[in-house]
User: Which sequence fits this backbone?
């Protein structure tokens, strides 16, 4: 009888240990699953950002190569920005960004003739609606003007074009966790400043 009680006690302890191990394993599995989900979500955000950078670089390069694509015309127009917007839509196809609202913003700073770096005019255009606050992501006119380059061949300051593309960020586990930790994980935006060639 005493042996049976000892055996019964042993079985109960063994069962309790197994239960404890199962609870620990379940706890670790949940944490592991959440980490995997967070990493997958975070990598999707970085993939979207990479795609956005490549598309914006293409748009900035087209703007930069004005002599080739726009018959040497340096003045940017609203119809050209609309063409850039349409091209971005084509480049977004077959990506996670396809079908999401986006906008293309351009700023062009032109300088007065002479050797003084004085801004003559600034043209700003937008194509598309994304809901992004673009001024949070672009350089100010003063910062763009500071990038001006003197062209000794033409004895003038070259105009500067800033091309920005913005996509509103989606709700995701990564965005929520970043917000909870006080990190601003919001819209996806890329901006490039280029000189004409």
Assistant:
């Amino acid at each position: 009888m005493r042996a049976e009680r000892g055996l019964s006690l042993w079985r109960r302890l063994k069962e309790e240990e197994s239960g404890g191990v199962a609870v620990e394993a379940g706890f670790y599995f949940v944490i592991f699953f959440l980490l995997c989900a967070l990493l997958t979500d975070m990598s999707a955000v970085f993939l979207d950002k990479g795609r956005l950078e490549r598309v914006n670089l293409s748009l900035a390069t087209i703007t930069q190569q004005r002599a080739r694509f726009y018959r040497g015309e340096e003045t940017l127009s609203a119809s050209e920005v609309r063409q850039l917007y349409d091209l971005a839509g084509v480049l977004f196809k077959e990506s996670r960004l396809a079908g999401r609202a986006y906008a293309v913003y351009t700023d062009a700073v032109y300088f007065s003739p002479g050797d003084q770096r004085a801004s003559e005019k600034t043209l700003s255009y937008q194509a598309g609606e994304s809901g992004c606050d673009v001024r949070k992501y672009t350089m100010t006119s003063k910062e763009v003007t500071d990038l001006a380059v003197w062209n000794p061949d033409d004895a003038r300051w070259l105009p500067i074009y800033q091309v920005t593309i913005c996509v509103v960020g989606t709700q995701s586990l990564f965005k929520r966790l970043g917000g909870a930790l006080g990190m601003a994980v919001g819209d996806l935006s890329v901006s490039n400043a280029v000189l004409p060639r």
Summary: The longest helix spans residues 2-64. Residues 31-194 form one domain. The chain has one domain: 31-194.
